[in-house]
């Protein structure tokens, strides 16, 4: 406890306290502001010109000896010298009395460094009914301090109507009759308020007692031990009295709250009960009057509770804290249990003021972690078994974190609109609390993990139970089928997640001699890795191996024991073998190509075992509690209990021999790229193999009885149509169809069955049947039949057309096909579908049928340079007019480097890889006058255009996106040509959409600058600190143009997907297209960042993360901030990949998250925001991808396009800054070296283009000579060329 030596304070020269206005107030006199505070009814105010008066009733009393104002303590040390500085003005007091307190925002408090509470003396035995006397025994309130009900508000208003209008009449003595009437009224109202308080207190006691038993059952035992719940039983207490107006004024003056005490942001009442309770720690100035006369003097500040304690003369002389507790007690929203704790802290017996203060401080601390208080205040205190939403929610309750170098435990969770959620942590040392945002929680978990790794202990007996408590309920979906992805402990595996089977607890643990014993750790599970590649050196162990490659000669199964955590175990999502998907996912693992055969075999085994378990094994029906009890009894993890027990006959099957008879990857048919169907491989039917080992099959005879499939539940049945619904399922069938097409123009080639599945054709033919009718489907059958007939007719007449006529006919045919596709979707959506027929299936098959007609039209009507097999690169020299400043990452040479990379991929040299170097005026005008105003607000466009037009022609590097305060323009610089460059870039993207949709080419790359995905509706969208080099958003404008109806000049597409793989989140694109859910758009962003990186500062952390503003300045987090950490609705899929984007993380996200979502969305067009700043040599340093990886990303996107929209895809250039210097240095004051290397762009680099680069940046860019931005563009365009054949 801190006390103030009165000798340290300035001497008292007068017995009055000057207020802020220079007036003098007599000791004990009520200021005019307090008199006005009692007269707020309907505009009545105090006439400040009237005399104040000196009635004794103006004096604020509490046993005639309390001194609550710190300034009064400054002027007098005697108990008889009492003074009040000016309390808050009347408007603030009226606001506090009239407005209910907001209870939605819990206060956030941090632990002061080095703070350790003093040990508290053991309290004497107390009786529950004991109530404090002395200053705590306040009189009945003359008026309530807050009105919780309309009737109480009316009482206050009626009372204020008769209030005096001057200070002289503040408390006059009324005539006896009036006095008795007034006393009757006041006593009635006072007793009524007391009755309500007593009822509320009784209800609080009852509710708290009821909640106590219920809540204790919900608390994890580990948390109960931390919070000492056994000491939390509180007897019934008496309710606290409300504050009178004078009590409230006295409290405000003591706390120095209001305009007269404006020392900082915290000098005011808080919006919630917890924030106001925390005011007992507020610092107050005790030499305020001295500061008024000596402005150069330093203020003396102490905590409010310490100041109250320093002026206390006995155990009950803590009136300042008592008034604060009474104020919080009657706030709207204060939990019932909190009220009980407040009252008990004041009524509990104490031997001294020090002991009373210790009780009060402990009570204030307890209310921040008390489980009943938290539960009543809206917090979740029970841990959940599975994550809730993208942030996890209550699953983290019970987890330990490291916060400000102290260990703490998470005790509660509450959703929050601003941050998504808040978690309450409790320090293990002193039970002080703090709140964590999502990113802070993840950082706390990571720090504790790092600390555990850095300081291993010999014995984990004590810490083991805590670790187990945090992971005991950890599980993954699908564990009931026994197959997961796990990270091997063998270092040769390179930490790659690999398919594995989880051994059930009854299978035990294999020892070195092959024996089985019980599990040794509750935090571990035992698994069998399937077809591992890292054990090739142990080939001698294998009993049988028919493999021909060196990675497949090792044992087919490997036993391992792994720790249970989300880092080591993931869900296995495959239900079938898709060669194409496995090839795509394998590319991002960074493994040699020879390992793919082993990779394929591992998934063949995993899928077959999963399918057998799903269809032919009974599931454990025990509840979660029963499973946990079983795990506890067997000293194992719940995953080992949930895992199925496969029959021995299944595990002993000759899988080596079975796999050796399957097709080797080298013998598989060419990739199905360009097809809308997966290359599906049948799943190994383990049940059929086992069944064949029994009579009569083992005798070579066929059983007449069907195989037992009683375990195949309705939930396990496939919901998709029968495989024969979709044509061309096998490679043999595809070859047969191709042969028929080459035979000529036959009726079979143009049959509707070649385009629509049997399922859809069946609906067309049976539409007239009453019991299987689908309204409108018969008309769709007529539409599609007529469309096929028109295509056949056009193909017959096509050879006689001229080139211009051919282009027009191709455009008409393709646009009509897409229009009929959209019309059919509407007809099906609003038709009545009979029971048992899936509307989703009908729509899916309808889309496939229309896209097959589209692809047939493109393949039949294409010719050299137009249509199928054509890739285009669009650019314009006007983009070079955007000139940035010296030192900017976004240099003008980016465009010549991009063109150079495209040329290396064949642009301009190959007749089917076109290089278009001009954007026509009609696209420029459409961009400027029609599309850009739809994407950006007119105020933003006008501001940008005016700013650029004001730049002198010879000036460059001028901030373009700074606000009126000059902020936000640090990285987005430009010149007089920046506006035209940005508009022509939009025009190029519109031209690309036209070329792709109308069939002139399959895919297009737009080499443009400046970039655009950070440009939103307005300046600096989604609270970004800048515009990130961007002016107008080309990707968003292209999407808007594609979905604009034909009647308004657009193309009338129904759905467009934008996939952004720039290292930064495209906040501008999300702001324009998906600020609210719009079913026309799906925005996908894979970028660096995450909740554990963005938006907070952590002092003293060894792994502090910083991001570069795109202009080079450092700040916390990764640009543009938190907006990319979560997905606000189903129209957005944001995938942050952490501090650095790696190839494995990118590949996993594309295969497991992006591909399913895009295929479900089924877009008519895919637009790529192609940023190459995630390259490993990019100067931003936030990526680990190679140029080949960007090619793989492009191929995955093309595969998605072929499966959903016949390959219609285009890309626009965004980031990527790894271009070596292209001009010699002119910094004469730095030493020159003979080893200076320049990037030779040849004729692609304009003669008048400078390339001034700082010396430090030049050093970073030198490594880009090996591989950089140019190679990334080359790989990107090469993948487009590779994928431009529609089949």
UniProtKB/TrEMBL annotation:
Low complexity bias: start-end ranges: 72-83
Superkingdom of the organism of origin: Eukaryota
The UniProt record lists the keyword Ribonucleoprotein: no
Basic and acidic residues bias spans: 55-67
UniProt GO cellular component terms: cytoplasm; histone deacetylase complex
Region (Disordered): 1-206, 699-730, 951-972
Matching InterPro entries: His_deacetylse_dom, His_deacetylse_dom_sf, Ureohydrolase_dom_sf
Hydrolase listed as a keyword: yes
Listed GO biological process terms: epigenetic regulation of gene expression
One GO molecular-function entry: histone deacetylase activity, hydrolytic mechanism
This enzyme's EC code(s): 3.5.1.98
This protein's UniProt keywords: Chromatin regulator, Hydrolase, Nucleus, Repressor, Transcription, Transcription regulation
Family: Belongs to the histone deacetylase family. HD type 2 subfamily.
Protein name per UniProt: histone deacetylase
Organism expressing this protein natively: Skeletonema marinoi
């Amino acid at each position: 406890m801190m006390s103030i030596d009165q000798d340290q304070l300035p001497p008292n020269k007068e017995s009055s306290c000057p207020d802020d206005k220079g007036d003098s107030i007599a000791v004990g006199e009520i200021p005019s502001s307090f008199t006005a505070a009692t007269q707020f009814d309907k505009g009545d105010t105090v006439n400040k010109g009237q005399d104040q008066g000196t009635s004794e009733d103006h004096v604020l009393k509490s046993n005639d000896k309390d001194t609550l104002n710190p300034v009064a303590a400054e002027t007098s040390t005697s108990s008889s010298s009492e003074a009040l500085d000016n309390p808050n003005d009347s408007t603030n007091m009226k606001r506090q009395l009239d407005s209910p307190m907001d209870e939605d925002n819990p206060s956030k408090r941090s632990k002061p460094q080095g703070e350790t509470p003093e040990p508290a003396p053991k309290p004497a035995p107390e009786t529950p009914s004991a109530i404090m006397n002395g200053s705590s025994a306040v009189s009945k309130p003359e008026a309530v301090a807050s009105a919780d009900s309309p009737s109480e508000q009316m009482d206050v208003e009626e009372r204020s109507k008769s209030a005096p209008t001057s200070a002289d009449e503040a408390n006059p003595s009324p005539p006896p009759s009036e006095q008795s009437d007034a006393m009757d009224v006041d006593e009635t109202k006072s007793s009524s308020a007391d009755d309500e308080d007593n009822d509320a207190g009784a209800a609080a006691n009852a509710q708290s007692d009821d909640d106590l038993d219920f809540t204790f059952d919900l608390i994890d035992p580990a948390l109960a031990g931390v919070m000492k719940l056994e000491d939390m039983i509180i007897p019934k207490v008496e309710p606290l009295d409300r504050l009178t107006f004078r009590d409230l004024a006295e409290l405000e003056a003591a706390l120095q709250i209001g305009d007269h005490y404006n020392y900082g942001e915290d000098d005011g009442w808080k919006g919630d009960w917890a924030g106001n309770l925390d005011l007992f720690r507020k610092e107050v100035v005790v030499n305020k009057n001295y500061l008024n006369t000596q402005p150069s003097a330093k203020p003396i500040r102490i905590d409010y509770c310490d100041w109250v304690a320093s002026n206390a003369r006995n155990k009950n002389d803590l009136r300042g804290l008592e008034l604060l507790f009474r104020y919080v007690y009657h706030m709207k929203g204060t939990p019932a249990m909190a009220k009980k704790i407040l009252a008990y802290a004041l009524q509990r017996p104490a031997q001294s003021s020090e002991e009373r203060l210790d009780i009060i401080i402990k009570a204030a601390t307890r209310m921040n972690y008390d489980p009943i208080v938290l539960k009543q205040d809206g917090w979740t205190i029970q841990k959940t078994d599975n994550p809730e939403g993208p942030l996890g929610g209550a699953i983290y309750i019970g987890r330990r974190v490291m916060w400000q170098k102290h260990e703490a435990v998470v005790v509660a969770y509450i959703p929050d609109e601003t941050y998504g959620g808040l978690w309450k942590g409790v320090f293990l040392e002193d039970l002080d609390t703090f709140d964590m945002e999502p990113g802070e929680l993840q950082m706390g978990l990571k720090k504790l993990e790092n600390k555990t790794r850095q300081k291993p202990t010999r014995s984990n007996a004590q810490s083991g139970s805590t670790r187990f408590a945090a992971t005991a309920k950890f599980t993954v979906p699908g564990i009931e089928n026994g197959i997961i992805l796990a990270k091997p402990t063998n270092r040769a595996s390179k930490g790659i997640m690999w398919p594995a089977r989880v051994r059930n607890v009854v299978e035990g643990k294999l020892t070195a001699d092959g024996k089985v014993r019980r599990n040794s750790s509750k935090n571990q599970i035992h698994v069998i890795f399937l077809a591992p590649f890292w054990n090739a050196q142990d080939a001698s162990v294998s009993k049988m191996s028919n493999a021909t490659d060196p990675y497949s000669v090792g044992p087919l199964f490997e036993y391992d024991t792994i720790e249970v955590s989300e880092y080591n175990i993931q869900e296995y999502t495959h239900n079938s073998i898709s060669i194409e998907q496995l090839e795509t996912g394998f590319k991002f693992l960074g493994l040699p190509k020879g390992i793919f055969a082993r990779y394929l075999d591992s998934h063949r085994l995993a899928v077959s075992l999963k399918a057998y378990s799903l269809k032919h094994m009974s599931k454990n029906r025990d509840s979660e509690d029963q499973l946990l009890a079983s795990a506890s009894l067997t000293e194992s993890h719940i995953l080992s209990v949930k895992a199925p027990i496969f029959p021995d006959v299944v595990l002993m099957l000759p899988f080596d021999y079975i796999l050796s008879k399957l097709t080797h990857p080298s013998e598989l048919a060419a990739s199905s790229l360009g097809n809308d169907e997966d290359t599906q491989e049948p799943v190994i039917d383990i049940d059929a193999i086992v069944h064949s080992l029994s009579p009569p099959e083992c005798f070579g005879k066929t059983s007449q009885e069907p195989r037992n499939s009683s375990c195949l539940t309705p939930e396990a049945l496939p919901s998709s149509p029968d495989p024969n619904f979709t044509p061309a399922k096998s490679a043999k069938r595809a070859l047969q169809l191709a042969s028929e097409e080459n035979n000529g123009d036959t009726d079979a080639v143009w049959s509707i069955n070649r385009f629509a599945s049997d399922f859809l054709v069946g609906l067309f033919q049976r539409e007239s049947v009453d019991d299987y009718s689908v309204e409108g489907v018969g008309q769709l059958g007529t539409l599609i039949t007529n469309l096929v007939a028109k295509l056949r007719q056009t193909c017959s007449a096509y050879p006689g057309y001229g080139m211009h006529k051919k282009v027009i006919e191709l455009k008409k045919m393709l646009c009509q096909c897409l229009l009929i596709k959209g019309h059919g979707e509407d007809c099906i959506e609003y038709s009545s579908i009979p029971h048992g027929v899936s509307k989703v299936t009908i729509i899916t098959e309808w889309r496939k049928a229309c896209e097959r007609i589209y692809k047939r039209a493109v393949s039949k009507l294409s010719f050299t340079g137009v249509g199928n097999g054509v890739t285009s690169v669009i650019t314009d020299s006007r983009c070079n007019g955007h000139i940035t400043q010296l030192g900017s990452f976004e240099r003008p040479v980016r465009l010549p480097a991009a063109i150079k990379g495209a040329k290396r991929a064949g642009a301009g040299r190959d007749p089917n890889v076109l290089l278009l170097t001009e954007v026509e005026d009609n696209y420029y005008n459409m961009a400027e006058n029609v599309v850009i105003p739809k994407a950006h607000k007119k105020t933003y466009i006008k501001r940008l255009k005016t700013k650029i037009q004001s730049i002198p022609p010879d000036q460059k590097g001028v901030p373009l996106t700074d606000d009126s305060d000059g902020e936000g323009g640090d990285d987005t610089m430009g010149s007089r040509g920046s506006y035209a460059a940005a508009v022509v870039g939009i025009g190029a993207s519109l031209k690309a959409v036209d070329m792709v949709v109308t069939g002139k080419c399959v895919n297009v790359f737009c080499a443009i600058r400046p970039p655009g995905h950070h440009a939103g509706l307005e300046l600096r969208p989604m609270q970004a600190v800048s515009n990130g080099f961007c002016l107008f958003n080309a990707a968003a404008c292209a999407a808007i143009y594609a979905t604009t109806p034909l009647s308004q000049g657009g193309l009338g597409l129904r759905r467009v997907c934008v996939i952004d793989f720039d290292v930064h989140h495209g906040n501008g694109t999300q702001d324009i297209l998906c600020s609210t859910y719009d079913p026309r758009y799906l925005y996908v962003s894979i970028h660096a960042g995450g909740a554990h990186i963005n938006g907070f500062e952590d002092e003293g952390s060894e792994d502090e993360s910083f991001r570069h503003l795109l202009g080079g300045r450092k700040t916390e987090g990764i640009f543009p901030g938190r907006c990319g950490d979560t997905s606000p609705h189903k129209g957005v899929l944001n995938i942050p990949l952490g501090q650095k984007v790696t190839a494995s993380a990118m590949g996993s996200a594309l295969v497991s998250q992006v591909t399913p979502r895009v295929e479900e969305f089924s877009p008519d067009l895919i637009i790529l925001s192609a940023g190459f700043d995630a390259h490993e040599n990019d100067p931003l340093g936030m990526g680990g991808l190679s140029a080949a990886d960007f090619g793989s990303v492009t191929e995955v996107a093309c595969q998605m396009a072929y499966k959903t929209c016949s390959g219609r895809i285009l890309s626009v250039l965004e980031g990527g800054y790894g271009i070596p210097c292209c001009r010699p240095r002119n910094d004469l004051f730095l030493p020159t070296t003979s080893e200076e290397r320049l990037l030779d762009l040849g004729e692609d680099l304009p003669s008048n283009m400078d390339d001034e680069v700082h010396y430090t940046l030049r050093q970073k860019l030198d490594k880009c000579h090996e591989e950089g931005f140019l190679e990334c563009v080359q790989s990107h365009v090469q993948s487009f060329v590779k994928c431009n054949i529609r089949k």
